[in-house]
Amino acid sequence: MAVNNKIIPCLWFDTQAEEAANFYVDVFDDARILKVTHYGPGMPRPEGSVLTVDFEIQGQRITALNGGPEFTFTEAFSLQVLCEDQAESDRYWYALIEGGGQESQCGWLKDRYGFSWQVFPRELDELTTDPDPARAERAVKAMLSMQRIDIDEVRRAADAG
Questions:
Q1: Contacts with 141 (C-beta within 8 Å, 6 or more apart), sequence order
Q2: Beta strand spans in 10-146 (E)
């Protein structure tokens, strides 16, 4: 299957690009490593060390780059994982924080590499943008009190009016 994404996120790592790409491919269904490139002679890193890893998660191509310690991840860029239900959301949430990740607020987390993800059931968007402003407000208030999203609790809060 050819990957024809025109926009490809590039994640800048110090030296962990291959390790991180393998981790992400293990976490997600329908994911695979596409290509690994290496530094060559005269390049700024040791010859033969990994330069980039192209991988795919559910049809989305991503590049992991070993570029050095000059840049680190921030919450200003994250990837969203829209899940079909609470079980899928929990599976990805716990897999991504495994091994040293950190929970944050409102479905956000940082994985062991410091990269930010937003993991939540699709229904969250429907509840927080409900046409009834009071219902949406109650859903948003519930979401803001959470780290890992509990969609049943958000739904109960939305319906509590």
A1: 157
A2: 10-13, 31-38, 50-57, 60-66, 78-83, 102-103, 108-110, 116-121
The 10s digit of each residue's pLDDT in 82-132 is 999 999 999 999 999 999 999 999 999 999 999 999 999 999 999 999 999
Give 53-74 pLDDT, tens digit per residue. 999 999 999 999 999 999 999 9
Q: How far, in Å, CA of 60 to CA of 9, rounded? A: 9
Q: How many CB atoms lie within 10 A of CB 65?
A: 16
Beta strand pairing call for 10-13 and 60-66: parallel
β partners of residue 102: 110
d(CA 28, CA 74): 22
> Which strand (E) or helix (H) includes residue 90?
helix 86-97
User: Do residues 93 and 109 lie in contact, with contact meaning Cβ atoms separated by under 8 Å?
Assistant: yes
Q: What is the pLDDT of residues 130-149, one digit of tens each?
A: 999 999 999 999 999 999 99
